[in-house]
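Issue 218. Parser rejects a valid record. Input:
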Amino acid sequence: MNYIEAVLLAIVQGLTEFLPVSSSAHLILLSDYLGSNQNLFYDVSLHLGTLLAVCFYFRQDLISIVTSIVEDKSLFKNQLSKNLIIASIPTLLLGFILIDFIDLYLRTSEVIAITTIIFGLVLFFATLKPSAKKDLDDISSFDALIIGLSQVFALIPGTSRSGVTISAGLFLGLDNKTASKFSFLLAIPTIGAIAAYQLVTVDVEYLIEYAQFNLLGITISFLIAYGTIEFFIKFINKIGFMPFIIYRIILGLILIYFLF
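Output the parser choked on:
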């Protein structure tokens, strides 16, 4: 990996992690195009960068959660905290069980082409559902479980973690902003678990040896991801999800054309 490849991967990770277009798909496709192997130790940096971005952006919500947990001496009295825990469990469990299978059989351009279109259509149909819940406090534990179960599909490259969880939220009657905000907050335990797993499975010597790449990846992915969250929330309130749906379908069709 050279500096140009490192910068491009960090930009793509920052742009796509929170957009409903699948960051894993774009990183795989970009790596294939560049002829570069995705280094696990560099993936750690990219995930840490986006994790820091979403934590910093929603710092007030996180402070409120932590304050409530400390005061109540419980993880579950705060409804948002409880919902995030419930929604995180399915993906963390199945991700740990299926990670080798996914790496061996699903990280392909063919899989990405199909899932990009299918879950783009899922998002489209989700946008047709009238919204009745317009606040995070309106999300029930059952809603959180359904969103968490839907997030399992994001283990398949091309699905998009944010896309499928937002779709589930919309189907449950959440409005655009609330579905997106819960999806972004759910990214914190999810991405945090991914980064933690990667940290314990890579050789620390590699992280130190390639410190310049890792710092570059963290910095760029953080800055791009933070700006993307800000842009996305404003964008969907004014325009909605249709541009992302169209992009997904076009990308999927292009991939199918060249692959099949």
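Fixed in the parser; the record now loads. The mean pLDDT is 92.
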